[in-house]
Amino acid sequence: MHKSPHSNTTRNHIPSRAELLVAGQLSIVGLILTLIGTVSLTWLVPLFPVMMIFGVAIVIFIQAARVRRVNSHVIIVSIALGLTCVSFASQPAGPEIGGYGTECVPIEDCFRPLRGAGFPLQYMIDIPGITAQDRLGVEDEFRPWAFFVDVMFYLAIGEAIHQVYRYFKVKTGQ
After folding, report:
1. What integer is the mean pLDDT of 105-125?
2. Measured distance CA(64)–CA(22) in Å, rounded
3. DSSP class of 106
4. Inter-residue contact 95 to 58 (CB < 8 Å)
5. Distances (CA, A) of 9 to 5, 12, 45, 82, 100
6. Angle of helix 47-67 versus helix 72-86 axis, rounded to 10
7. Dmax of the chain from CA atoms?
8. CA dist 55 to 8, 21, 49, 89, 96, Å?
């Protein structure tokens, strides 16, 4: 008979003070990495390193939460919120059209696609004439419903992955 390498004592393990201390330190490192990533986005550093920083921070938070025995749904909600905020880095122009000035000849040349942030829906839209052109800031239009839909999108993906993980975990007997 095949015996699982993971015993029931591992599942019922109560973390020691040292493990909780390490989990707290991991949380601090994850928070620092998240802040570094956010500051890097404002300096327009190339996107790939910033996304790698956010990815490492998410993995660190997951490991710290597992040691602290946080409910998996709380972790999934946290990841969904984090991914929604990270999706701010996706800033394509359009589909919204806005006016950039009034001294264009012909006047139709003043209208062009507005920059927006967020994926799959843009929850932040550039308002022309308020800030530097094609730069998003706190004074631009924030759309709470689009932000909520983005969180729900990432939450649905996270829950689906979690359910598949649980299915295979039960199927293999671990």
Report:
1. 80
2. 8
3. S
4. no
5. 11, 5, 46, 33, 65
6. 170
7. 82
8. 31, 22, 10, 13, 30
- pLDDT tens digits, one per residue of 131-174: 667 677 777 788 899 999 999 999 998 888 888 888 887 888 76
Locus of tokens 């946080």: 70
Amino acid 49 reads P
Residue 164: in which H helix or E strand, if any? helix 144-172
Note the pLDDT tens digit of each residue in 14-54. Answer: 777 777 777 777 777 777 776 676 666 555 556 666 667 77
C-alpha span between 19 and 90 (Å, rounded): 37
Amino acid at 102: T
Residue 52 φ/ψ, nearest 5 degrees: -65, -40
